[in-house]
Write a structure and sequence with these properties.
15 helices; globular
Length: about 375
Amino acid sequence: MTPLSRHGRGPRGLVDWRAAARGGGGRTRRAARPVVTLGAAMQRVALVTGASSGIGFALCKRLLQEDAGVQLCLACRNMQKATATKAMLLAAHPSAQVSLVHLDVSSLESILWAASEIQHRFQHLDYLFLNAGIMPNTHVNFKALISGLFSGEAVHMLSTAEGLLTQEDSVTSDGLQEVFETNLFGHFILIRQLEPLLCRLEKPSQLIWTSSSNARKSAFSLMDYQHSKGKESYSSSKYATDLASVALNKHFNKQGLYSSVVCPGLVMTNLTYGILPSFFWKLLMPIMWIIRFFTNTYTLTPYNGAEAQVWLVRQKPESLDALTKYHSCTSPLGGNYVESRKMDVDEEIAERFYQKLLELEKQVLARLTVPLSPK
């Protein structure tokens, strides 16, 4: 580990997305974009999925602290929460440019409409933060937890959740595994739809994925990449994220698009609090603060967890290592910094997985027809 410095129209008024699945790089037609001034065109634009709470919200706050002139687009499923988030951001930064777009990454229909709206609004995207995610129906092995707390593996166990968590996945209306579609594939489709805004040789753009230390190779199978037969769907989806990022760099770096993955560390968010009953967290919190003295990945707060994402914004994407995951870290005294750690990924497997994603994209778009106006 290395420490680093602190829409074409079809018959009967429908949009036919099948054309995009038939090859040739087909994309939907868009209305002519409005003329923008040179100053507006030069502004940095950042799109954040899952921006209404947790790490996504903390990231938005920190981006505005870094550059109050950045245009922020919050892509959220719950628009009521998104509106409240926007109000809080503007209260702290009254002159900020913050917009909202409805996006549910577990719904292909929502993704396609959001991508169309984003292409209509913006000339380019400088940063696409792929942050939205779920860990549904999580079950904890309490026997393993209690025995592990009194063993030499306590820090490792509580840092990675290895051997502790299982999830019961479900199937979305698109016929895909929910965790796979929400955490990875929905974002993959979003990237593919936004390629015209992202691929710019004159000014490179960045994809920044929220991965996890729980992204374990042992949980992933290329033969069951949606993880329909396993019980570690979250871990599988995060490892799949790492693979996808590696493959995206291979295919898009020459077009000015670079992909990186971050681990926010152990952060207390709604996702985390849903794993255990509230009384159990009260018992664990003193232990977690003690463990923080022995492991730097216990970032604990969303603000700390967003450190690696903010750090990546300051870097030249061409200088970043495609096989590295960037970890948010916090010292015992509360100082934030970033560590780079090599990912346990095979580039050949990453490429084979990428080809499977492209084939799945063709299949799902070939059978999808979307009404002209979003619901």
